[in-house]
Amino acid sequence: MDDIESPISTEVLGSSPLDITVDEGDETSKEVQSDPEPRHGSLWQEDSAVLEWMLCRKEDVKLEMGELEQALPQPVMYHELLWRDWQDLSEPLLTADQQFDFAVLSYNILSQDLIDQNSKLYQNCAPEILHWDYRWPNILQELQHWEADILCLQEVQDNHYREQVQPSLSALGYSCHYKRRTGRKTDGCCTCFKSQRFTLLAESHVEFFRPAIDVLNRDNVGLVLLLQPRLNEGTENGHAAPAPLCVANTHLLYNPRRGDIKLAQLALLLAEVEKLSRKPDGSHCPIILCGDLNSTPDSPLYQLLYNGILNYSGLPAWKVSGQEPYCTTPNPRFLCSPLWPDFLGINGCCQYVTQQAAQIKDKMVYTRECLLELRYCDYTLQRPKNLVMLKGVTDKEPDPCREPAHDILDNGRPSFRSQPLLLQHNLDLTSVYTHFLPSKGRVEVTTMTLGIGSTVDYIFYSAEPIPVRGRKHGLRFYQDAQLKLLGRLCLLSEEDLWAAQGLPNPFCCSDHLCLLARFSLDLSAGAKKE
Ligand code: KL2
After folding, report:
1. pLDDT of 15 over the 60 cut
2. 314 C-alpha to center of ligand 1: Å?
3. Strand spans (E) along 450-497
4. Domains of the chain, start order
5. How many beta carbons lie within 10 A of that of residue 88, not counting itself?
6. CA 444 to ligand 1 center in whole angstroms
7. Which residues have any ligand 1 atom within 6 Å of their CB?
8. How far is the CA of 239 from the centre of ligand 1 (A)?
9. Are 264 and 339 in contact (CB under 8 A)?
10. Angle, helix 300-307 to helix 259-277, in steps of 10 degrees
């Protein structure tokens, strides 16, 4: 991937999107405000590829569906109208035979059935660019252009998977794996890897729908693959086979009001990732977790993933995903404890219970954190009946309801003095993206509907937490470990996207941007061959 620079300067056009209220079947409604003029960039129209597209487009003719197919604009060569810089992040310190480099791309490609079901969301787009026969060749060119070794796609419609996605990507050397959403949903997650670069060790299809569990009554899914890097001749020399790579791909529930469901779905995915990535010594192989989490970077769900811990005491369900700034229902739902019943077999540490029981048997040690949490548990708060009161000593009542004190322990995690409702995991994941564009002074966005941009897509990867007191915005600090982040494809700001007619547009054929990161796996961390 070459360093690239923008041929255009993007123009900031106005600030408020169109006034439309959307109400969707089993999901929820979204209300946004207004500016009746559709947004047209001006500079981008001078671009030769745009002009080519404009000439193909029969603008003033209202077309019937059959005619539309004939009038479809010819797919334009993949063209970076929305310029995306490649950001190099680290000088490779290791020699080529000590590292295994690979790139991962995550992309919600917008299923055609969802366009039809939520058509009001796309009413500002030219109908011909919403057509799958127009979008797919462009999406394919985009995928070809970036040449990632691993693709994590979401919203892949099953008939399109069988008829186009799988055949085209197989022809490009990818091994393709697909999990359709359950029930009547027609799209799903698709993970593909270059078969020259990896071999498949294990594959797990995770269905978040569990009959009889209220908080798991939706049809979202996840796909987890365990991939063995294939070292080439020169690299193989002197190194044991590197640890496998665990790659998870998901698309969590959209409904902004049901953060309780999103948390339970994420816990299920994390339990599966933990199981697949666990090595015999109890540590984990490097993990990459990609997808559309339908949650923003300032949300409690993000906090759980990034910090490894979330206290959800008193948290209303609508706040979990950060998608909405205020409550839109008169009787908001609060997260209940426990979030899911025991018979799901997953504990509050997002691990399958049988595995954790085995772990505890091995350890049998009370941690300082655990003892601190026990200090004010129900049992310790009960006074013996005939206790003799000593002034200043036993006449004081401990107050279990006071605000939790966030003591930061040596490992960087907080301990809570009152009884917390905790969700935790121990996978140590950090994000490829920082969610902010320092050069533009703007937040990054990964998706844009009706003129409103937000970040909901992520690539998380295994890193090493830095045990420091204090945090950046309540978040932990990490440094790279066995997986080193070599670079990423910069995201864009909401203003950049306005300047290009929003999403989808003639060049970006989904309502999401693709995320792309390059990693190197440190082979010297593995044992040398005898
Ligand atoms: O936000 V998304 O788009 O990650 O790109 O995920 C969901 C939404 C996807 C699958 O459910 O369909 C879209 N308003 C807006 N978008 C909706 C709605 C809705 N009410 N329902 C589903 N989606």
Report:
1. no
2. 27
3. 452-454, 457-462, 464-465, 478-479, 483-489
4. 7-38+42-75 (no CATH), 86-352+420-529 (3.60.10.10)
5. 13
6. 20
7. 22, 24, 27-30, 108, 114, 118, 121, 254, 292, 294, 447, 456, 511-512
8. 46
9. yes
10. 20
Facing residues of 160 across strands? none
Split at pLDDT 50, 70, 90, the class of 386 is confident
* Residues facing residue 422 across a β-bridge: 311
Q: Which of 290, 269, 277 is nearest to 153 (CA)?
A: 290
Predicted local confidence at residue 237, as pLDDT: 56
Residue 514 has pLDDT above 90, yes or no: yes
Q: Best substitution site from 29, 113, 254 to test ligand 1's pocket, by max atoms within 8 Å of Cβ?
A: 254
Helices (H), 278-352: 300-307
pLDDT grade, residue 389 (50/70/90)?
A: confident
Task: Give the closest residue (by CA) to ligand 1 atom 12.
Answer: 114
Between CA 453 and CA 185 the distance in angstroms is 25
Task: Answer whether residue 91 shows pLDDT above 50.
Answer: yes
Average pLDDT, the chain: 81
Name the token pair of 390. 């000593």
Pocket test for ligand 1, best of 118, 120, 262, 510 (most atoms within 8 A of CB): 118
